[in-house]
Here is the input.
Amino acid sequence: MPYNELRKDYLLNRWVVIATERSRRPTDFAKPKAEGAKSAVCPLCVGNEHMTPPAVMLYLKGNGEVRVSKDPPAGERPRNWLVRAIPNLYPAFSPPKQAGDEQQVLQSDCFGYAIGEHEVLVESPNHDENPADAALPQLELVVNAYMDRLRELSAKPYVKYVSIFRNYGQEAGASLSHAHSQIIATPTIPATIQEELDASKNFYDKHQKCVFCDIVEKEVQGPRLIYENADFAVFAPYASINPLEFWILPKRHASNIRSLTKPEAAAFAKTLKASLRALKDLVNDPPYNYGFHLAINQEAQDYYHWHLEVYPKLSIWAGFEKSTGIYINTVTPETAASELRKSLKLYTFE
Amino acid sequence: MPYNELRKDYLLNRWVVIATERSRRPTDFAKPKAEGAKSAVCPLCVGNEHMTPPAVMLYLKGNGEVRVSKDPPAGERPRNWLVRAIPNLYPAFSPPKQAGDEQQVLQSDCFGYAIGEHEVLVESPNHDENPADAALPQLELVVNAYMDRLRELSAKPYVKYVSIFRNYGQEAGASLSHAHSQIIATPTIPATIQEELDASKNFYDKHQKCVFCDIVEKEVQGPRLIYENADFAVFAPYASINPLEFWILPKRHASNIRSLTKPEAAAFAKTLKASLRALKDLVNDPPYNYGFHLAINQEAQDYYHWHLEVYPKLSIWAGFEKSTGIYINTVTPETAASELRKSLKLYTFE
Here is the structure.
């Protein structure tokens, strides 16, 4: 039938109109690069460590090897770091200030306190070393840092979820241009993740199988596959709500990234770099957001499956999306995959 | 306790961090006005009617009165219009192309066809006559046109919901700068509205009262009230997800705007103009989206209560919001209300 398609997300009750009648080629989205509003002094660059709070975790240059300092001496701000996690100066969530506070997060069914953690993960001493261009060994350190921070934060008694995400480009909400991610630990499980947990548990109870394992099996054989290797599959999800959206799913079932093996972490870094590079080359280095979806609660380990969702910021969610929850996407996921696949093939792996 | 607040929406399972620790004054959001990318020729201006499909509804200048043409002669494109509704050239939803198609909207639980309607409502012959500056008689025509289109579209057998919304400014997704709204009729009830319907029905079953009537009664007495008159209340909602967000609720219970009285429609136009004018004056004419929330199904008439939500576009939803569904708002609704109240008081009603 000659209509736009309505598609529902694999798990969420989230519908999108795949607007093929107003469809656009991915390259239509390429925009001239705006000159970034470079602040005179970057607080995340080497030499400016005094501008940020002392790190809570440091990867330091040693004698030819990387030294991890998980509990740096209070107040010290060494300059020989490779990756560092620092508290956000303006935290959305902050740690308990006195014993017992963490018991009182929810005061009613509509009011509570934002107790948790909010960190900035500085990904490199090099201002512009974003994942699409980073040297692989450096990006592997970033992935390791994600794992380290997740282990550390998810062990805290007041933490029920850890959101690891990245904003790239001013239009995607990055207020600093230095390569960095953010990590927010929350005292409740966020609504989007809870809806995924519920739906994947339902699927598991019905089919004795992880729904994401099922999705990977199907998507690697279909038109939405962008790239795969032994450990990961990259594809445009069936009900993408953004033009050129893609997800990275591990082939080995795991509910979070706490226990990735060293080769898996390296493979993830490579997969992340290759796919972000494909996006960058295809549409002139666009802004994007990415976020890990994962579960840290023990009972979800069989039915939930961690993954990374990458949302290029190429369109604007406007009045319709904001008042209905229905999205309109003018690039079909199949076209997105085909273009990103071609772009990725031109990239030579190191 | 010295923490940011976590607040839940009145109805939706949607939480926001009211980030007072990183709080900003509303006037911090005032930005120099970007020069709008004016297209050489505006397809919505008088004289360019040939650039758009013929109108499906016209309000025409008559002999000192407005003549409504609900079914204009096919192919005619008169120029003496005051308000006109035209089919969107690139519709997200489109009408059934043959009998029976509308029976087949949903093909499975994750796939369907976007059968419906998608119209552009041109609000004035004057390119820049947006609600904050419009003459009240003209804005009353716009409100009447919303009512007329809702009556017309909601009577179609394949329509389950009608979304009436407005995008103002490029950053809020308006691709044309001529004063206009959009109307999308959908073949299913959108997720956000369904969640509100379910929650308000629950409240009604429990308390034999409309939850929105309850909200109005409370908010008009509290610190989040911005403005009220005999027919409407304007307030910053308790769990605002946007800086300077405000809602307009009618005091008389009604589930939609099909049966507003003439004085109510005039009062709504006045209320809309005054509150958008207050926003414009406060932060230098910012971009915004607004959307009506309403119910057209008979059974919801007792428990659902129509309203308008106005979302100024002053911040960016980034990786955290997009991957968790938790929002961060750096202006407290109480501050927003106080500033908008002051700004509104400076405005002289006609």
Observations:
- The mean pLDDT of chain A is 94.
